Amino acid sequence: MADRARGPMMVEEHPEITRAGNAALRNQIEQMLNSYERDISALETAQARAAEPVTVWSADNLVRVTANIAGVIEVHLQPEAFKRSSPEKLGVVITETVRDAGRAAARVQEEALAPLTDAAAAMPDLPDLIPGAPATKDLLARFVPPPVEQAPPPPPAPAAEDDDDDYYRNQGYLR
């Protein structure tokens, strides 16, 4: 009867229950931290893949643009670009190719990060489980910049053939 007077079983009287509970909790936390570390590693790998440069050629193969998610890395003009095109047309081709390279880099980024964004949206966030832990969704937002709206490309400049273009194109300046 003395046991009933004391109330429910005291934890101190059964240290094996406390140890087992602590071990289970410790194991669960270790699994969550390991999962978190794998997620961070996957984010960093995806970010590196998303930042890889892409190269785009113009339709006439006169302009090559290399870009990544940060912007244009290189613009290369084939030597015959100046012979086969006017400055106005070449400017339009360069602009279009730069835009195409930007779109290609955005696609690479989207493809690289898609599995992570889908997984992150479906899982509970770390602060939901461990108060004060960093939010995975905040970390993901740091790696994925918000989409940039692009203005539609301007209409191509009207093709105006003037004597100056022929002069340069036909190398009249060498005579």
Automatic annotation (TrEMBL):
Spell out the coiled coil positions from the record. Answer: none
Q: Which residues form the signal peptide?
A: none
Q: Which domain of life is it from?
A: Bacteria
Which residue intervals are annotated with compositional bias (Pro residues) in the record?
144-158
Q: Where are the transmembrane segments?
A: none
Q: Where is this region: Disordered?
A: 140-175
The name this protein carries in UniProt is YbaB/EbfC family nucleoid-associated protein
What is the scientific name of the source organism? Nocardia aurea
